[in-house]
Write a structure and sequence with these properties.
The protein has 200 residues and is mainly beta. It has helices spanning 19-22, 67-75, 88-93, 104-108, 169-172; strands at residues 26-27, 29-34, 40-45, 48-53, 56-63, 77-81, 112-113, 122-123, 128-139, 145-157, 162-163, 166-167, 175-179, 183-186. Strands 3-2-6-9-10-5-4 form a 7-stranded antiparallel sheet, covered by helices on one side. The chain has a 3-stranded antiparallel sheet with strand order 1-13-14. A two-stranded antiparallel ribbon has the order 7-8. It is globular. It comes from Solirubrobacter pauli. Pfam families: Flavin_Reduct.
């Protein structure tokens, strides 16, 4: 068992920082936003997750003032789109660095669908999408990272993935980020463990 401080790891043993590989798998924050001039942006974020369910809140962390963060802050809204196995290649294409104002939907060959309560469009083929209102923005001390929190105010769900009243993740096949340059996982099987004091 080795111990190291994050900025002093043994680079002979660990030439690549394993932090992202340890905190895994992580859902992908495929975030769509609209800029002040009507520019549409779509980008995947490695640091994304649910925060709480009352009210339902999610967050994504941006390494600096990238388009998704600045557009979400200026407009006060964003949409999270679930990345599935079938959408993996398009998601990867939207990670390309494009000139500001160039549409990642078009770049990746994705169709936009209108949202109901917010301005940013959603990915038409994403089986789940959250319409979100920005509630808080936090700048991480000691770094350049900006965390955007959003309350989920609307949910789009493809009902084909609902089985006996339960959303079937093995049918959805969401993918997750697992670290390093391009490691991902796919949810295609589940196991169940009911906690001892679960109140049905």
């Amino acid at each position: 068992m080795v111990f190291y401080e994050p900025d002093k790891r043994d680079r002979g043993l660990l030439p690549h920082d394993p932090f992202k590989a340890f905190v895994a798998p992580r859902p992908i924050g495929w975030v769509s936003t609209v800029g002040p001039g009507g520019e549409v942006n779509l980008a995947p974020y490695s640091y994304f997750n649910a925060v709480c369910d009352a009210p339902p809140t999610v967050m994504f962390s941006s390494a600096g003032p990238k388009d998704s963060a600045t557009f979400a802050h200026s407009g006060g809204e964003f949409v999270w789109n679930m990345v599935t196995w079938d959408l993996r290649e398009q998601m990867n294409l939207t990670s390309a660095t494009l000139p500001r104002g160039e549409n990642e939907f078009e770049h990746a060959g994705l169709e936009m669908a209108p949202s109901t309560l917010v301005a940013p469009p959603r990915v038409a083929n994403a089986p789940v999408a959250f319409e979100c209102k920005v509630t808080q923005v936090v700048e991480i001390v000691g770094g350049k990272n900006i965390v955007t929190f959003g309350q989920v105010v609307g949910v789009h769900l493809d009902e084909r993935y609902v089985v006996d009243g339960i959303v079937d993740l093995t049918r959805l096949k969401p993918i997750a980020r697992c670290g390093y340059r391009g490691d991902y996982a796919v949810v295609d099987s589940l196991f169940e463990m009911i906690r001892p004091d679960f109140d049905s």
